[in-house]
Amino acid sequence: MRIRHDAAHYSLPKGVDDLVHGRSPDPFSILGRHNMGKVDVIRVLYHDAARVRLVVERPRAGVMERPMRRMGETGLHIGTIPAGARYHLKIQWADAVEETDDPYAFGLLVDEADLHLFSEGRHPHLDRVMGAQPMVVGGTAGVRFAVWAPNARRVSVIGDFNFWDGRRHPMRLRHGAGVWELFIPGLGPGERYKFEIMTREGHILPQKADPFARFAERPPATASVIASPAPFAWRDHDWMEQRTARQAEDAPITIYELHVPSWRRPQGDPDRIMTWRELAAELIPYVMEAGFTHVELMPVMEYPFGGSWGYQPLGLFAPSARHGTPADFAAFVDACHSAGIGVILDWVPAHFPNDVHGLVNFDGCALYEHQDPREGVHRDWNTHIYNLGRHEVRGFLIASALMWLERFHIDGLRVDAVASMLYRDYSRRDGEWIPNIHGGRENLEAVAFLRQLNQAVRDTIPDAITVAEESTAWPGVTRPVEHGGLGFSYKWNMGWMHDSLRFFARDPLWRGYHLPEILFGLDYAFSERFILCLSHDEVTHGKGSLLSRMPGDNWQRHANMRLFLAFMWAHPGKKLVFMGMEFAQEGEWSHDGQPEWHILTDPFKSGTLRIVTDLNHMYRTLPALHARDCDPTGFAWVIGDDTANTVLAWLRFAPGHVPVLVVLNMTPVVRHDYRVGVPVGGAWRECLNSDATEYGGSGVGNGGYAMATDHAAHGHPCSCVLTLPPLAALYLHPAGDGS
Questions:
Q1: Are the beta carbons of 468 and 445 closer than 8 angstroms?
Q2: Element (H, E) at 254
Q3: Strand, helix or coil at 7?
Q4: Which residue ranges in the chain fall short of pLDDT 70?
Q5: Among residues 127, 363, 445, 469, which one is catalytic?
Q6: Strand 718-724 and strand 671-678: pairing?
Q7: Which architecture, in CATH terms, is 252-358+401-430+465-623?
Q8: Could you give the angle at the alpha carbon of 470 between the alpha carbons of 469 and 474, nearest 5°?
Q9: pTM (2 d.p.)
Q10: Which residues contact 621 (CB under 8 A, 6 or more apart)?
Q11: Is the alpha carbon torsion for 505, 508, 513, 517 positive or negative?
Q12: What letter would DSSP give residue 300?
């Protein structure tokens, strides 16, 4: 077909000056294909191209090349083709020729239904819609980009592929949702990119990383990286089939918390951190040998500042590139599951840092954060607070949570800093906060968000768990949403932690006067489904190590440490300890170092690790110690008032299983002939003695068994007469059945 060249085809359309100078809010109105009867006018913008040719695909006549006319110094090139003909571009650069499809030849990309759900904060799979999505459109492979920036005048995709020039790939605005989109042919996984955003006033903001990126450069670099869409080949079917039972409230759950960069330095090199595959090779055997059921990773979502330990994340959809690719992270989770170990991630919806490449002032306005600092700034951390009153922000966070649980088979999320979310006056003085609509201090938007989050998890991945770090007495944290609660599966028991640490730091000779400090926790032990936590927060910021808080000489400090751990494992509630505690590390944790692995040659240290291993084994194999962790019928006091001897005793129960008697001697004085009531007579097996020589103790005990006679005591028909070792715990159960 011979095309008549009409001068109108080459006239400069309205708005071309804004387009050329990177100010146009609607590049598709000028660029791409525009029909003019029997011909389509094609306009492209390449400022630095020597020339551009149209490669026209004709069904009968084959391929034909047509030159495009360069329009002066504008960088705009215009050409014509038969109406509806397929075409691509051949671009002559100074040193190369590039053939590519025209990004502006494609129609609307993101489905209206997806945009509608996004605007309502109800899209569960935003990781499949927003950000950079490799795909094939009309037979052309490339990447579709989508970003939320409703207040921007212009948004462009920039990267190595266009020399970080924001004039090259301006995006189309979907006005109803405030989402900008563009499909760039020829791009694929591994490309670096960001967004260049112009404000309504015409200012160019610092280049922004993609809030929905599923991969990023390794910090301190800040670009987003197009992630591979290839699904991971999971081999954890058996684990996933059993997960509901393994994480139920009647299951034994013991959690090993760790900071991945500092858990162990490869080859002892202080400047190196482990990759996910290195971590799997070393961590999994260690955790299996110690008997923990789960690992909990301090935040691995991409974060710019290593000193934040991950608690100031910006890439809520991206595992940190510090340790490898998303596929490497999936392989780590898969390996944990294959070994029977669950994986919990710390997840931070309470705040985000103010790094300029991140979410702050994202499109020139307070978008993800509050405008008013009385609502939007965390003074403790100098970070910004998410505006949970916006549907899109709530949806962004919930989609992040669901992505980790679905895409990476994560077993649970521990939600950080929930207390700071629930109260508008958290860590604020009078006049520094704004009351809610009823004049109260409760953050109603955060309450609604947490309920929506937990309901979404329960509806979508019902066998996953959520855990609240909540340090106040907010009622119903683990109560179901439909019953007025927040809907978490478990709550960290911060009150138990503070009271217990205070008690065990006291001189043992005076502990009898302070028994209420550790008795009080049992008054509310069943008000929520609790995890007893000794986390990283207790061994940093000048607090010293857990061992350093134990009083006495070196022997007594380690005896107290073993007693504390045995007390914890016998107390109702699931268990969590931070790395290094399991072998009584001497020094305070530092994220720049690693646990003091070299001291495991010390018998006291190896003995502490051994008792933790044995406690984990007993906790799993004796149902009385775990099956009713969240039920008051699983606990009964035997002795709770012996302030003279500072001795405590209680029973743990599980239907159909033997009870376990727990006796604690909180002083360094051996108690001979100490009578303790029990429900049945006969031999009781001493299954744990924290003073055993293999743990580094003195070996005082009862020879492995105690006989219960029909001498009534403490409200029970029978009793045992025991020798109580110094600063030690005893566990005993009827000898006829070890189950």
A1: no
A2: strand 254-258
A3: helix
A4: 1-5, 737-739
A5: 469
A6: antiparallel
A7: Alpha-Beta Barrel (3.20)
A8: 155
A9: 0.95
A10: 738, 739
A11: positive
A12: -
Could you write out the three-class secondary structure of 328-358? HHHHHHHHHHHCCCEEEEEECCCCECCCCCC
Secondary structure (3-state) at 633:
helix
**Both tokens assigned to 98:** 């590039």
CB-based burial, 689-708: b 16+ in 10 Å, e otherwise = bbbbeebbbeebbbeeebeb
For residue 268, the model assigns a pLDDT of 81
**Separation CA 505–CA 508 (nearest Å):** 8
For 217, what's the count of Cα atoms within 13 Å in the CB-facing half-sphere? Answer: 13
Burial 490-513 (b: 16+ CB within 10 A, else e): bbbbbbbbebbbebbebebeebbe
Residues 205-255: pLDDT tens digits? 999 999 999 999 999 999 999 999 999 999 999 999 999 999 999 999 999
Q: Which fold, 7-100? A: Immunoglobulin-like (2.60.40)
CA distance 558 to 595: 17
CA distance 664 to 571: 11
Side chain identity at residue 377, one-letter code: V
- Whole-angstrom Cα distance, residue 715 to residue 471? 36
SS3 call for 275 = coil
- First-residue to last-residue Cα distance in the chain: 88
Domain boundaries, the chain: 7-100, 112-226, 252-358+401-430+465-623, 625-734
Cβ–Cβ < 8 Å for 665, 724: yes
Residue pair 215/224 in contact (Cβ under 8 Å)? The answer is yes
The span from the CA of 248 to the CA of 241, in Å, is 13
Tokens of 187: 């791009």
Tokens 């029990």, residue? Answer: 678
Domains 7-100 and 625-734 equal at CATH topology level: yes
The domain over range 625-734 is classified in CATH as 2.60.40.1930:
no
pLDDT in tens, 425-467: 998 888 889 999 999 999 999 999 999 999 999 999 999 999 9
Rg of the chain over CA atoms, in angstroms? 32
Phi, psi torsion values for 369, nearest 5 degrees: -105, 175
| Six token digits for residue 153 | 């005048």
The answer to whether 166 and 196 have CB atoms below 8 angstroms apart is yes
Do residues 110 and 182 lie in contact, with contact meaning Cβ atoms separated by under 8 Å?
A: no
DSSP states of 508-567 as a string? Answer: GGGGGGGTHHHHGGGGSTTSS-EEEEE-GGGGSTT---TGGGS-SSHHHHHHHHHHHHHH
Q: Are 551 and 508 in contact (CB under 8 A)?
A: yes
Cα-Cα-Cα-Cα dihedral sign, residues 664, 666, 672, 675:
negative
Hey, what are 382's tokens?
């100098």
Sign of CA dihedral 123, 127, 130, 136: negative
- The catalytic residue among 101, 102, 392, 416 is 416
Other beta carbons less than 10 A from residue 63's beta carbon: 11
Separation of alpha carbons 453 and 455, rounded Å: 5
Q: Would residue 642 show up in a list of annotated catalytic residues for this protein?
A: no
Give dist(CA 422, CA 476) in Å, integer.
Answer: 13
Give the pLDDT score at 482.
Answer: 96
CA-CA distance, 216 to 317, in Å (whole number)? 10
At 737 the pLDDT is 55
CB 574 within 8 A of CB 254: yes
The correct answer on CATH 2.120.10.30 for the domain covering 112-226 is no
Distance separating alpha carbons of residues 739 and 618, to the nearest angstrom: 10
- The pLDDT, as a whole number, for residue 738 is 47
Q: Has 673 been annotated as catalytic? A: no
**3 state DSSP class of 369:** strand
